[in-house]
Amino acid sequence: MAIAKAERLMNLALCLLGTRRPLSKRELRESIEAYVEAFGPGKGTAGGDDSFSRMFERDKDDLRELGLVIETVENLDGEVGYLARRDSNRLPPITLDAEEAAALGLAAKVWQQARLAGAASGALQKLRAAGLPEGVDPYEAHGALEPRIPVHEAAFEPLMLACRDRRPVVFDYRKASAARPETRHVEPWALECWRGHWYLAGWDRDRCAERVFRLSRITGRVRSRGSAFTAAVPDVVTVRETVASWAGEIADRSALIRLRSGAGYPLRAKATAVRELGDGWDELEIPYGHGLDAWLVEFGPDVVVLEPAELRADVVDRLRAVAKG
C-alpha cells in the first residue's frame, strides 16, 4: 500500500510538473493510471466521484507537505486547474556557514511546540542534504532561553496554507466594536505575531483595501476559494507597523481621561501628565493614536474619557456593543 501511494504521488507530481497549462481534476483523473484503476475514467457514480475528490485532495496536500509548489488557477469558464511550474520548484545551490545553520536551527526550535514542528524538522533535513555544514546540530542548545511562538488559534493553519498557496479565503470576523461577526472575503498575504497575538494582512475584497485581522477574532471555519488573487501582493507587508498604529503605539495627539485611583497602571505608565482630582479619581493626559478606544474599553468603569469628543464617542460605541453581547 505504501509503495502504491508513493507511485501515485510521483505520477501526480510528474504530471503537474510536465504540463504547460493547468489541468482540471477530470483531466488528472484520466491521465494517472492509479486513479483510472481505482475510479475509472471520466465521470462515474456520485460516490466514486466523492472518493476520488477526497483522495486527490489528500495527495495534493501530501505533495505540498513534501515541498512541491502547486498553483490553483481558475479559467474563464470557472473551472479550477492545477499545475506545478518548474521555475517555482527549482532551488539554486544552497551553501550555509555555521552561523547561518545555527540561525535556521534556532528558527526551527521556535515551532517545536506548534503544529509546524514537522514541517520545520523536514525543512532542516532537506537543507542538510542540500549543503548544511556537517557537524552542525541545528537543534543544539543556544543558551538558557529558548524562543517559543504560541499558536492557539484554529484559523492559523488554514490561513498559513492560504498565504503560501495564494488562495483567497472567506471567514466570519467580529470587530472589537461590533456586536456580531461579519463575513469577510480576503486575499491573504502574510501572518505575523505581535505581542502574543497573531495577525493576518491581506486584501479585503468587499472594502477594496488592505486590512489587518486579528486571528483571535475570527469565528468559525476558514473556507478556501479557488479563484485567483485580484490585487497585487506588495513586496513588503508591514503587519507590525500597521497593528502598532492601530493599537495607539504611533500617536500624534493627546487625550484627557479620568482614571480611578489605584487602577489602570498600564495607562499611568504611558501618561505624559497626571493630576489628582480627589474623591478617588486622577486626571491623565495620554498619547492618542488609532486603536486607543479599544484599549480604554478594557479598563471598564475605571476610565472616563473627557476629550477629544470623537474618542469619547468611540469608547461609548464599543461599550454599547459589549453590552448587547
| Category by helix and strand content | alpha+beta
- Strand % is 15-25%
Number of strands: 12
Poorly predicted tracts of residues: none
Biggest beta-sheet profile: 5 strands, antiparallel
How would you describe the shape?
elongated
The rounded Rg comes to: 26 Å
Number of helices: 11
Task: Give the strand order of the largest sheet, numbering strands 1, 2, ... along the chain.
Answer: 7-6-5-4-8
Average pLDDT confidence is 80
| Proportion of residues in helical segments | 25-40%
Distance between the termini: 53 Å
Order of helices and strands: HEHHHEEHHHEEEEEHEHEEHEH
Characterise this structure:
By secondary structure, the chain is an alpha+beta fold. Helices cover 38% and strands 23% of the residues. The chain has a five-stranded antiparallel β-sheet with strand order 7-6-5-4-8. Strands 10-11-9-12 form a four-stranded antiparallel β-sheet. Helix 1 packs across helix 4 (46-65), helix 2 (25-31) packs across helix 3 and helix 5 (98-110) packs antiparallel against helix 6 (117-130). The protein is elongated.
